[in-house]
Amino acid sequence: MVRSLVLVLGDQLSPALSALAEADKAQDAVVMAEVMGEAGSPKHHPKKIALIFAAMRHFAAELEAKGWRVLYSRLDDPGNSQSITGELLRRACETGAKAVRATTPGDWRLIAALDALPIPVTRLEDTRFLASAAGFARWAKGRKTLRMEFFYREMRRKYRILLDDDGKPEGGKWNYDAENRKPASSDLFRPTPPAFTPDAITVAVLDLVGHKFADHFGLLHPFTFAVTRADAEKAAEHFFTESLANFGPYQDAMLIGDDTLYHSLLSPYLNLGLLDPLALIRRAEAEYRAGRAPLSSAEGFIRQILGWREFVRGIWALQGPEYTKRNALGHHRPLPAAYWGGETKMTCLREAVRATRANAHAHHIQRLMVTGNFALLAGVAPGEVHAWYLSVYADAFEWVEAPNTIGMSQFADGGVVASKPYVSSGAYIDRMSDYCRHCSYDVRSRSGEAACPLNALYWHFLSRHRARFAANPRMGLIYAALDRINPDDRRAIFARANTYLEQIDTGADPV
Ligand SMILES: Cc1cc2nc3c(=O)[nH]c(=O)nc-3n(C[C@H](O)[C@H](O)[C@H](O)COP(=O)(O)OP(=O)(O)OC[C@H]3O[C@@H](n4cnc5c(N)ncnc54)[C@H](O)[C@@H]3O)c2cc1C
Ligand code: SF4
Q1: Considering only CA atoms, which residue is closest to atom 24 of ligand 1?
Q2: For residue 137, what are the contacts with CB-CB under 8 A and spacing of at least 6?
């Protein structure tokens, strides 16, 4: 007889999980389940599914070794009901358990499903975050706008990170982003990211995923992710010793064929629960204090985790289940086929999608300023953009993906996350990458067939949303620049944009 079932989801693989901390090994049983309901809808990247299932199987073995009774449902187990709640009910029937204990999931659909179960469910706070949902709500209360920068400063004070003896920000500034805008060049030395050889457990998962999800977008092999805490910690160690020092300056850079640069690639491990965010933050600070990393790099890395990661999670919790349906700019165009690997002449888009397909990963500036920027300029329906990001990235879970996509990237929340839309012409991509030098479009032209599509779409976007953005003080200069373009040129630019959008709609020209 089991007293309670303890649910452990695929992104809750942390020994300190609140649901485990409040359970009793002698009386309770852990439920873990690989189910089609999660892996197949939306159709997630095969590498992401394999990463989660392999990490789950390793974590279940760890729990068993520590004396937990684990009721583990493999995807192809004959009795598997293929949904999380179905598996909880099945295990309750089998064991006689009368209650469920769960750490609150980071997905509103799953929260609603748990709350609707016909047996009592105790939902606990996810204490792995450094700001609680209630704490974030208190911080947000009464503020006209929610800006990451001010939240981040509070978090720095709360956890005493990068402060001097007087409690002031180390080096005199809170944020060193202005020093982090260097473009990369291909002759830079760049470390090779660590690759982990699949063990027997992971090989079995790869066979299963290769068989069951062959029609999903993305390459399953080579599979080199860490799937245990010990290996994820090795990946973190590699980042701190090899890449952190250059992380800051090259944070926004992009290079053809280089899918890593100096990024950490730690987001999947953090989001699955294999790494502890505060430990990474403290380690980055220690690298700076030991003189092994400049302040701009350590602060930049810490801001991403203590600032952005916690901020977007707070926004997700605050905004509720309707957030993913927001469409403030009224965009309705379908997502172009190029996002699923269809042909495109745009080198920037092709590179971002190639990396995504190969790795279930792309770095931030590719997500924001290439795929996100193009979708926003072209007026793609934010719900479609959200579904794409959620399915193709190994680190994508609703709590982190939705505010980044719906809010930061698509401005579909009307400015909750971002104070202005993240849009740019081709000039930004040309400055930060070597893409344009290898593109069949001309980044310096704004009109005509050979012109970089982002140039015409940029001015077209600004013009069609003038009523919303012209009064934004951060966009005054941009609108002044639009108004300075001579009328004939402006007509030619808009004609180029309209033709291009028609070509996307009819599929006449692969973007
Ligand atoms: C449209 C869009 C969608 C995104 N979707 C996701 C997503 O589904 N999951 C996800 O983890 N990140 C998402 N991001 C944020 C960011 O792109 C990734 O966290 C980052 O690229 C992960 O690679 P990395 O580990 O090498 O990051 P690094 O550049 O090394 O940064 C270090 C860590 O900071 C955290 N971080 C950095 N930026 C953000 C951010 N904006 N929001 C939250 N955490 C951040 C991540 O945990 C990351 O591992 C998205 C960004 C955009 C613009
Ligand atoms: S020219 Fe335009 S389309 Fe081509 S890579 Fe540069 S920004 Fe992208």
Answers
A1: 265
A2: 314, 317, 318
**CB–CB of 156/306 below 8 Å?**
yes
Residue with tokens 């006689």: 96
Looking at domain 4-124, its CATH architecture is: 3-Layer(aba) Sandwich (3.40)
Judge if the beta carbon of residue 95 lies within 6 A of ligand 1.
no
Looking at ligand 2, which residue's alpha carbon is closest to its atom 3?
A: 346
Give the closest ligand to the alpha carbon of residue 344.
2
Is the whole model's pTM more than 0.70, yes or no?
yes
pLDDT in tens, the chain (511 residues): 899 999 999 999 999 999 999 899 999 999 999 999 999 889 999 999 999 999 999 999 999 999 999 999 999 999 999 999 999 999 999 999 999 999 999 999 999 999 999 999 999 999 999 999 999 999 999 999 999 999 999 999 999 999 999 999 999 999 998 877 788 777 676 788 899 999 999 999 999 999 999 999 999 999 999 999 999 999 999 999 999 998 888 888 999 998 988 899 999 999 999 999 999 999 999 999 999 999 999 999 999 999 999 999 999 999 999 999 999 999 999 999 999 999 999 999 999 999 999 999 999 999 999 999 999 999 999 999 999 999 999 999 999 999 999 999 999 999 999 999 999 999 999 999 999 999 999 999 999 999 999 999 999 999 999 999 999 999 999 999 999 999 999 999 999 999 999 988 887 655 5
Q: Is the shortest distance between the CB of 365 and ligand 1 below 6 Å?
A: no
Tell me 89's DSSP state.
H
Judging by beta carbons within 10 Å of its beta carbon (0-12, 13-18, 19+), is residue 121 exposed, middle or buried?
A: buried
Residue whose CA lies nearest to ligand 2 atom number 2: 452
- What CATH code would you report for 133-191+243-319? 1.25.40.80
CA of 264 to the centre of ligand 1 (A): 10
408 Cα to the center of ligand 2, angstroms: 22
Q: Are 261 and 242 in contact (CB under 8 A)?
A: no
- Domain 337-506, what architecture? Orthogonal Bundle (1.10)
Domain ranges of the chain: 4-124, 133-191+243-319, 337-506
Give, for 124, the enclosing helix (H) or strand (E). strand 121-124
Q: Which residue's alpha carbon is at the smallest distance from atom 6 of ligand 1?
A: 401
Question: How many Å apart are CA 301 and CA 297, to the nearest integer?
Answer: 6
With a 6 Å cutoff on the Cβ, whether 409 touches ligand 1 is yes
Determine the Cα–Cα distance for residues 203 and 210; give it in Å rounded to an integer: 10
